[in-house]
Structures are given as C-alpha cells and as structure tokens.
Design a protein that fits this description.
heterotrimer; A alpha+beta; B alpha/beta; C alpha/beta; A: alpha+beta; three-stranded antiparallel sheet; 16 helices; globular; B: alpha/beta; Rossmann fold; three-stranded parallel sheet; two-stranded parallel sheet; 7 helices; about 40% helix
C-alpha cells in the first residue's frame, strides 16, 4: 500500500473559497483528512474591538461573503437586546425580505457550484445568472451588489424604494418559471446522480456529535430544526412556511432540500410583501445625537439566526463604552468544515471532498474570520 | 514601481505580446472576498470569454494572477509560491482597496497592507469590492497594456528579485512552509 | 416545551450558580465556578441542550481573569444558555470538554491559539490552526496591539498627498 500526501486546495477549481483539505490517500481513496483553515483569517474579532459600535457595520458583512446580510442581522439583534431598542414593525418585515432574498441567492449559487466538483458547468452558468437577478434587487435596495450594510441596529437604513415590491414579485415569478428547469438539469441529471446519490453520507447520530445545524441536520434527522421555527426572530412567527426535512442524508438529498427551501423562501417573500405595513417608520434613532459617542449598556448577549448553512450567531460583550469589548462569531459551517472534514471523509474518493464542502455548505471566510 | 517608458521590445516580442494578449488565461484562485464577483464575470451575464479570457486551474499554464482582495500572510505564502511557478510573461492584477493600502484591514495583524511590496502589480482595480463591470473594464485595460508592452511587472520582478525577496522575508519570516500537515 | 421560569429554577436548584440572568428573549445566562463547568454541561446535555453553539473566551485584563463562555442550545425548548466561568489569567489552565461535546475540539484549539488558554486532554492543542508561524503573544488578548504589529511587519503605502494633514498646504486654504 502506498500512502500519498495530497493537498486539495487552496488553489483548486472545485474548492469553495480559499480553503484547504490535506489528505493521505491510497489510490483515490481518502485514508485521513485534515482541514486547514486560516487562509482568510483577518482577525475580525480583534478589529471589531477597535471600531465604534456603528463603525463595525462596515466590517461585519465581510465575515461571510456569500451571505452577508445575516451578519448585519445578528449584530443588530444583539445590540438591540443589549441596548433595549424596540425595532419598528415595518423594519422587521423589511429585514425578513432581505434575509429571504439572500437565502434564495445563496441557495441558487450553491446549486450552481455543484458544477465545480461534478464537472457539469451548465448548472453553474444557469444558477449564477439567476443569482445575479437577485443581486440586482439588492442593488436597487441598497446601492451595492454584495455588501449592503442595510440592516442596522434600530431598524433598516432606508425605506423600500418606489416600485421595489413590484420588481421583487416580477423576479420571483421569473425564478419560479426557471426553477423546474433547474430541477430537471441538476437534481435529475444522471451525472449528478452518479456522483451525489448515496455518496458523502451524514448519519443522524453524527449530527449531534459534530454540532451540525441547518440543512445538514435537517436532512439527516428528519427534525424540522430551523431557528425560524424553533426560536422565531423578526416576524417569522407570523408567516407560514414549511421546513423541508429528510431522514437519509446523502449529497443528493441535501441538494434537494436546498432546492425545496428556495420555494419556501419565495413563498415567505410573497407573504412579507403582502403583510408588511404600508407605512410607518423603518428605524429608530439609537444614539442621542452623535453616533460616534454612542455607548451600549454593559452586558453579554448571544444572538443567532438561521442562515442558509445553519445557526449563525454572535456573542457580544459590552462594557458600557463606545466600542464592543468582545465579539465572538459562531460561523454556521464551523462544525462541518473542521471536525466534519477531519472525521467523515475517510473512505470516500478525493473528488468527493469538494462535494461535501458544497452540499454541507462550507463557507471558508466565516470559519477563518 | 518605476518602469522605463521606452518601448524597446524586439519585433518577435511584439508579435508574441500581440498573440498572448488575445488569449489570456486567468489563474483560478480565490484569495479573498473579491472572488465572489468572479463567477458573474466568468459566466453568462458578463462573460469574460468575449475578451478571450478564461479560467485556468494550474499556475503553470496561467498568464494572469488575480489577487482578489486582502491577503493574509498564510495566503501570501501560497500566492508567492504560485506566482513563481507561473511562466513568463505573467501578470498580476490587484483587486480592491485591500491590495492597494490594506483597505478596511489596515490595522489587522494577519493581513498585509501593500501588495506591490511582495509581487509586481501591473494593474489595480479599485473598489470594495469591484463590480463585474469594473473587472471587465480592468481586464480590457490589461489586454491593452499587454499589447503595448506596458505590463512589464514580471521583468521588474526578475530584475529586482532581491528587493522583493527581502520584503517577503521581512513580513513573512519564511516563504515556503516545509510541512503543512502539522502532524 | 418547558417555560423559561421553570428552566431557570431547575438550573438554580441543580447547578447552584453564582448568578443567573436573562439577557435576551429566551436566553439564560449562568455563572458557575470553573470546577462546576463539567457537571453543568453534562446536566444540561441531559436536559435537552444537545448542541454546543460556541465555546469562546473573554479577556478581563483589569481583573486578571479569563472568562470561558459555553453557549448551548436546546432544539426542543428553543432556549439558549450561556454558561460562564472565570479562570486565572496568569495560570490559564482548564480541562477539555470534548468528552461531553466532541464538537468542542476545534473551539478549544481556537481559544488556545487566540488566548493561550490550555485545555488539558485535547491532544491537538499545540498544532497551529488559523495562524501560521505566529511570533507574538496570542492575538486576541487585550494587551496585544494589532496596529503596532501591523506597522512593524507590513509597511503602509506613503500617500503622495497628505490628505489628512492639517498643516500640509491644502489647495483651498
């Protein structure tokens, strides 16, 4: 037997972001694998201690690049809990709209990125083009495609622009006509079936050992463990949606779940636009006068939201001054990206490692921070 | 960096530059967050293949190294390693404000502040992060520079190798990591 | 679904915490003694708090203490618990909790790398995780100055025009 050391990534077309998996392989079977994070380490937790509470708004979206809005949301939720700010009703609904649009965008992209590990780039081309239409909506809303800095402590930055709801509904209708084609192309395609079916399994008992949340947990255990249901934030308790679950977690099942979640998110977006109050304030002033001297009362709070990959949370500590004392970030893909890669890739093929990264949703910037 | 302005290429080099400008291969390496705008640039909507550019998986066959944003020291070691594997002529494009002056991470302990201390940068694309239109614009400019023989960073790297090496060693301590397995 | 009040009284009875509070909606904070962490984690895991959300650390440099924070979540009750304990900053030793929550392994490595807290029993502790060839004190400690480190290692670009300088001759002055 000849064991060979092999680096998968950081520079590899199938790799998601700047991340690396080091493995010992025998032929193309993985004997041992080690995650190597840290290529995107920027020291966010230190930098956030050096910025003002409001100044951090520019920094936090950059922690998770594919889905930046969840960062703004957890930061706002945490600071509001510490400072005792009541968010206006309309802001809650706008936040939900933004979060669900972001979820659609990131799920579409992750369906597309299945092209990397499987070599079926048609999926990538289609899905990225669809995601771009959602980014256009964000651009209309906030002026930026990727980093919006739209959700702020106390509400959202501005009210929806004129005609925005109509544009959203148009895009949703268009997406719904495209999604069945996606289903045919990606979820029923023989290439994907050959690679993803019965491959890269996540057994149910492993879920609790790793601490995996999100699609990984729901696809293995059959439990509807979604923070939007279990511990609703914003106004998720006032909209109706289902949490897709499964009890057999191979890569194909997880893709299917993401696909079904897109439909649920579209339905939530429609309900939000329907139930949202027509007018009213969208933010409350948080600081008396000068945001530079805004202090947040001392305390420690953990805020969490359901991201597309699982529970995403900030632990925020304030000592009552102008800057946070400590902020710790719980990246949603931390368990599956580190311990999951170390323990559960053994016995699979080299090229399946990036299939794990794609379907479990491993986002390297939020692991490294 | 200071480049001599005179075009002293031989006719063969001019022909070579002309052809390589029409078929530029970009190395597929997401070094930072600007890489999230690369998929739209590469695929149907903005479609950089109309410029004759395409992604390439290995550094040995690539012409352009994109530094898409901030570089942590850990990544910079791999980037330098990849850059030295590339064949001349090779070009470096810096994305976003982080490569210019550190950007939002100016006081971070893990990211470098100036990319052109370590690698010769031919072109910067400003923005945080640059939009796909800006990226396409930058690529068109790079192709133009290659045609005119203005993208001479790789030659500058050869001629000033000691200076670059010294900067790399000063900031990184050690450029090539011997054993990455940490076993 | 257990209510918050019954959960708090259960925790008070079973763990005898030094202090409990409710920092946010459906969230309980409990401060225990360092040697009570393991018992508390095992007790809470049996009560349904099966998920370790995050293990992190706070550097209280003025008190010369590190505060370890374990955040657990119960998917049946929808309640977060912060379990906190303070240890000595000069002798930052603690025991691993990977026997209760195997997922804590990488969090402990991270806390060791960024704060220098040593978790006895975690065999991978001394391998670098995020940082490579790190040559200073652990970076998330409060007495570490990232600006000074960045200035000493990574040169800044000198601007041709000093925009922020008050004395430099601006155009419109």
């Amino acid at each position: 037997m000849n064991e060979v050391k092999l680096f998968l990534g950081p520079q590899h077309p199938g790799m998601h972001g700047n991340y690396s998996v080091h493995m010992y392989v025998d032929g193309d079977i993985i004997n041992k694998s080690r995650p190597t994070p840290g290529f995107l380490h920027r020291g966010f937790e230190k930098l956030m201690e050096r910025r003002l509470w409001m100044g951090n708004l520019a920094l936090i979206p950059r922690i998770c690049v594919p889905e930046p809005d969840i960062n703004e949301m957890v930061y706002a939720m945490g600071v509001e809990a510490l400072a005792g700010i009541d968010v206006p009703e309309k802001a809650h609904w706008i936040r939900m709209l933004v979060l669900e649009l972001a979820r659609i965008a990131v799920h579409t992209m992750s369906l597309g990125f299945i092209g990397g590990p499987t070599g079926m780039y048609t999926a990538t081309y289609w899905a990225i083009a669809q995601r771009d239409l959602i980014l256009d909506l964000f651009e209309e809303l906030s002026g930026a495609r990727i980093y919006h800095m739209y959700i702020i402590p106390g509400g959202v930055r501005k009210d929806l622009p004129d005609g925005f709801a109509g544009h959203v509904l148009e895009k949703m209708a268009e997406l719904e006509t495209k999604l069945p084609e996606f289903g045919e192309l990606i979820l029923k395609h023989p290439v994907i079936h050959a690679r993803a079916k019965d491959n890269i399994m996540l057994p149910a008992e492993v879920v609790w050992e790793l601490g995996v949340t999100g699609v990984g947990m729901r696809s293995a255990t059959g439990l509807a463990n979604d923070l939007r249901k279990v511990k609703p934030y914003a106004r998720y308790d006032e909209v109706e949606f289902e949490v897709p679950v499964a009890v057999y977690s191979d890569a194909l099942t997880r893709l299917n779940l993401k696909f079904r979640e897109i439909y649920q998110s579209i339905s939530i977006v429609r309900q939000v636009l329907e139930k949202m109050p027509a007018d009213g304030p969208v933010n409350v002033p948080v600081s008396p006068g000068n945001a530079l001297r805004w202090t947040v009362p001392a305390g420690m709070v953990y805020a969490a939201v359901e991201s597309s990959r699982g529970e995403y949370g900030y632990f925020i500590v304030s000592d009552g001054r102008e800057k946070p004392y400590r902020i710790a970030v719980r990246g949603a893909s931390y368990p599956q990206g580190l311990l999951g890669i170390e323990k559960y890739l053994k016995g699979y093929r080299i090229d399946d490692a990036s299939l794990w990264m794609d379907t479990m949703g491993v986002c390297s910037p939020e692991i490294d921070r | 960096m200071v480049l001599d302005e005179k075009d002293n290429r031989s006719p063969w080099e001019k022909i070579g530059d002309y052809f390589s400008a029409n078929s530029v291969w970009m190395k597929w390496y997401c070094t930072g967050c600007g890489a999230i705008e690369m998929p739209p640039t590469m695929t149907s909507r903005f479609d950089m293949e109309r410029l004759g550019m395409g992604p390439m998986a290995t550094p040995r066959q690539a012409d352009v190294l994109l530094i898409t944003g901030y570089l942590s020291t850990k990544t910079l070691r791999r980037v330098i390693y990849s850059y030295e594997q590339m064949n001349s002529p090779r070009y470096v494009v810096g994305f976003g404000s982080c490569t210019v002056n550190g950007g939002i991470y100016y006081d971070s302990y893990a990211t470098i502040n100036r990319l052109d201390m370590y690698l010769p940068v031919d072109l910067y694309i400003a923005g945080c992060m640059p939009r796909p239109e800006a990226i396409m614009n930058g690529f068109a400019k790079l192709i133009d520079m290659i045609k005119k023989g203005e993208a001479r960073g790789w030659r500058h790297y050869q001629e000033n190798y000691e200076w670059y090496k010294k900067n790399q060693l000063d900031s990184l301590g050690e450029v090539i990591i011997k054993d990455e397995f940490h076993e | 679904m257990n209510s918050m009040n019954s959960m708090i009284s259960d925790i008070k009875a079973a763990l005898s915490p030094l202090e409990t509070s409710e920092p946010a909606f459906r969230q309980i904070a409990a401060v225990v003694k360092p040697d009570g962490i393991h018992g508390a984690l095992a007790y809470l895991k049996n009560k349904g708090f099966t998920q370790l959300c995050i293990l992190t650390c706070i550097d209280w440099i003025e008190d010369s203490q590190f505060e370890l924070v374990y955040i657990l979540f119960s998917w049946t009750d929808g309640i977060h618990i912060q379990l906190r304990a303070r240890i000595d900053r000069e002798k930052p030793f603690f025991t691993t909790v990977t026997d209760i929550f195997p997922g804590a392994r990488y969090y402990e490595r991270e806390v060791h790398e960024f704060f220098g807290v040593e978790f006895c029993g975690n065999e991978d502790l001394y391998k670098p995780l995020f940082l490579e060839l790190w040559d200073d004190i652990p970076p998330l400690r409060k007495d570490f100055d990232p600006q000074a480190y960045s200035d000493s290692k990574f040169p800044m670009r000198e601007n041709a025009n000093e925009f922020l300088s008050m004395t430099g001759g601006g155009d419109d002055e």
